[in-house]
Amino acid sequence: MRRVKRALSCLLLFACAASCAPGHANSPDVNGRRYFGSLAAPPGQVLRFNLGSEPELRDPSVMSGQPDGRFARIVFEGLTNSDPRTLEPRPGQAYRWETGADGLVYTFHLRPGLSWSDGTPLTSRDFAWSWRRALAPATASRNASLLYAIRGAEDYNKGVLADSSRLGLATPDDSTFVVTLAQPTAYFLFLTTYYTFLPVPRHVVERWGALWTLPQHLVGNGPFRWTYWRQNDRYEFAPSERYWDRAHVRLEKIVGYTVDDLSTATNLYKSGALDWNPSNYIPSQFLPYLRGYADFRVYPSQATYFYCVNCTRAPFTDPWVRRALNLAIDREAISRDLLKGSRAAWGRITPAGYPGYAGPRPVAFDPARARECLARAGFPGGKGFPRVSILFNTSEDHRRIGEAIQAMWKRELGIDVELTNQEWGSYMQSTVTLHYDVARRTWTGDYLDPNTFLQLLVSGDGNNRTGWSNARYDALVREAAGTLDPARRFASLAEAESLALDQSPYLPIYLYSTSELVKPWVRGIYPTALDVHPLTYVWIDHEWRQHEPLAGSPVRP
Amino acid sequence: MITYVVRRVLLMVPTLLVIATLTFVLIRLAPGGPFQSEKDIPAKAKAELLARYGLDRPLHEQYASFLRNVVRLDFGPSYKYPDRQVRDIILQGFSVSAELGGWALLLALLVGVPLGTLAAVRQNQTADFAAMTLALAGVSVPSFVLGPVFVLAFALTLLWLPAALWTGPASRILPVLALSASYVAYIARLTRAGMLEVLRQDYIRTARAKGLAERDVIVKHAMKLGLLPVVSYLGPAAARIIMGSIVIEQIFAIPGLGRYLVVGAVNRDYTLVMGTVLFYASFLLVLNLLVDLAYGWLDPRVELA
């Protein structure tokens, strides 16, 4: 028995040592700053990062999803590419472009001597062919609607227009690509940085069909070539010798691990196996603890968390009911008490950070007015209000927020709400087919313009998912789309958003933020609004201890 | 013996047919489908996708074509990863899971059987208590606790081993240990129970009376029968451990097969779900057959006919 006791005490001691140690041995200080985990940079110019979950589709014209997009931007390059700090479009495969006075015609001039990574010359016809393919109904691209700015694109994609030669895409010669838009689109150049606008190699796609995206077939035109893949393990890339700016590409190798477990990704970063752990692959319980470290940064992202209300179901057909629900949500309390400040309370549909767009006044918690609204709808003190339910997909956080809002609506409005939990597939089905009362949702912006959010609520938009339809709103969004002057355009959009906030088909709750861990030797990865990070000019600074402690300045909201 | 094996193999066919049918019905009953996403897809594109995979045809036709494909061992491409064949996904995942599970099972046997035997031979002595305490701990502590504790101790604090990923021999150690712990414990307890029962039997007394060395009594006579419970446990255990464990795969970022069973169902990736379920089912049936054959060899009283 004594032996057992000794063994047990040994075990206890060990467990204690394990749980106490990381504060000391593993979190060295450099220049007075604390870093999270190992500070041994691997030799050479190698970047090892977490790509997140395994990319589903590697065909840029078809894909949607962050890991997929990250892959595409490493291997392909569009007419323009993104500035690593601001994401503003910069010359990519096109070295210059002109815009017609009416804002409808864009003429892109390609760099001379461009080629695919297998040596096949790349011409303007590759772009025209790729965009047509992305729009073809048979391609079934999930992001084809981003190309709707182009003349004829929407009709062609929806099968109304059969002749693809009538799209606003022209190639007068091998190096000139002329795009005619359906209407002026202020953010069109920005769209050309998006992965749906990337060129795909016609000769490879036609030869291999759906299998062209396998590693043995895929050919790109971007700064790196795809060299190795193991499903659910890793992607490896090496510089492409044929890239036009090869001279300025410094990384010799990129390894993107596909680790979708948050704790595992953070452990790998801490142990020094990852140099960059981006895009919130950090357990939320770690966030308060990580705030003191110099290699941790958090910045607002273009995504909002909101509840949508099924406007086709009584009693939600009445805007006074929706208003009451909207005004009775104490967003500050949710952000402060539930989310421990890791997300900012948010009272608008569009997120912050669109240059030039101030947006309308946000919805604020106003219980007295909420009660008034409910009374005007015919339910004073919540009397006679039917039992309704909040739908969310399985997640502890969604449940906790649902419970908090359930309590708020009970307390402030005297109404009873149930919580309904469905797994992802059922939840998707319920929201798409409007089989719910109130449902939790998230939307992430595609481009840096409020339109990427406000388009959602246009009548009949596939992402509306509330059945809400308002002619005035539709007119305002349409009017903005046809306006080139930014001030007037944003004024229309702000008016539309203000109308939507008042009508309350969506009840905003909080603004997402992006947290990431970056080792101090990684240079050229900056906080950006869309969590998009071009890796072309990233490099490893082995003298980082002598230089500034961190590349880029961390922004802390 | 051969007729027995042939009959058993033939019996697998209806079993698998029932499993295939049930899975087909259940996954189709689940709300939603493989092509839904947070972002809406235009109706035309969605129709195109459904037609491409034959999902627009009547259900009985889909079922018939699915059965034809099963016979040819071809499940077609995954819906979630359209450039990858389900067969390739399964084979790639299985090769990793089989290695991980194989090591873990081997370890479980190498540690569990001697531990259980020792406990049985020294029944109610210190060694027995120590071994059974250890076994109780092993059974009680789930792998999702053990895994992170191992990572914290050996990877993040002592820096001896990698925290995760499947590269090089060192990366195998922690996941194999974490995965095998509960199997070690279970096998030790089964061995102990089996051995205790056998050790009390007449033929063991006879062996001892003949003057055989205790070592020979245990190893040559008692173990053969005493291990029967372990052998029957080994069939399903091997299937489970070798088909992959989603928990261990998540914690250690291992590209194994376990995750596809779960992820495929969540994504309504019909072909992937059908492929993994049928693969798992066949594997389990084959292992059960092997267990029954081993029984016949270990225990002469069992007759295979």
Word description of this protein:
The complex is a heterodimer of chains A (557) and B (305). Chain A has helices at 2-20, 22-25, 66-75, 124-135, 153-157, 188-191, 202-208, 262-271, 287-290, 319-327, 331-338, 367-376, 396-413, 424-432, 451-454, 471-481, 486-503; strands spanning 29-30, 33-34, 46-50, 80-82, 89-91, 94-99, 105-110, 169-173, 176-180, 224-230, 234-239, 253-257, 276-277, 296-309, 344-345, 388-393, 417-422, 438-444, 506-518, 522-523, 539-540. Chain A is of the alpha+beta class and 557 residues long. In chain A, the strands form six sheets. In chain A, strands 13, 14, 15, 16, 17, 18 and 19 form a seven-stranded mixed sheet that branches. A four-stranded mixed sheet of chain A has the order 3-12-11-10, with no helix packed on it. Chain A has a four-stranded antiparallel sheet with strand order 6-7-9-8, covered by helices on one side. Chain B is built from 13 helices and no strands. In chain B, 75% of the residues lie in helices and 0% in strands. The mean pLDDT of chain B is 87. Chain B starts with a helix and ends in a 7-residue tail after the last helix. Chain B is flat, with a radius of gyration of 24 Å. Chain B is mostly helical. Chain B has helices spanning 2-29, 43-52, 59-71, 86-121, 126-140, 143-157, 170-199, 202-209, 214-226, 228-242, 246-252, 258-266, 270-298. Classes of the chains: A alpha+beta (557), B mainly alpha (305). At the A-B interface, helix 1, helix 8 and helix 14 of A face helix 2, helix 4, helix 5, helix 6 and helix 11 of B.
Give the topology.
The complex is a heterodimer of chains A (557) and B (305).
Chain A: H1 2-20, H2 22-25, E1 29-30, E2 33-34, E3 46-50, H3 66-75, E4 80-82, E5 89-91, E6 94-99, E7 105-110, H4 124-135, H5 153-157, E8 169-173, E9 176-180, H6 188-191, H7 202-208, E10 224-230, E11 234-239, E12 253-257, H8 262-271, E13 276-277, H9 287-290, E14 296-309, H10 319-327, H11 331-338, E15 344-345, H12 367-376, E16 388-393, H13 396-413, E17 417-422, H14 424-432, E18 438-444, H15 451-454, H16 471-481, H17 486-503, E19 506-518, E20 522-523, E21 539-540
Parallel strand pairs in A: 3-12, 16-17, 16-18
Antiparallel strand pairs in A: 1-2, 4-5, 6-7, 7-9, 8-9, 10-11, 11-12, 13-19, 14-18, 14-19, 15-19, 20-21
Helix pairs in contact in A: 10-12, 16-17
Chain B: H1 2-29, H2 43-52, H3 59-71, H4 86-121, H5 126-140, H6 143-157, H7 170-199, H8 202-209, H9 214-226, H10 228-242, H11 246-252, H12 258-266, H13 270-298
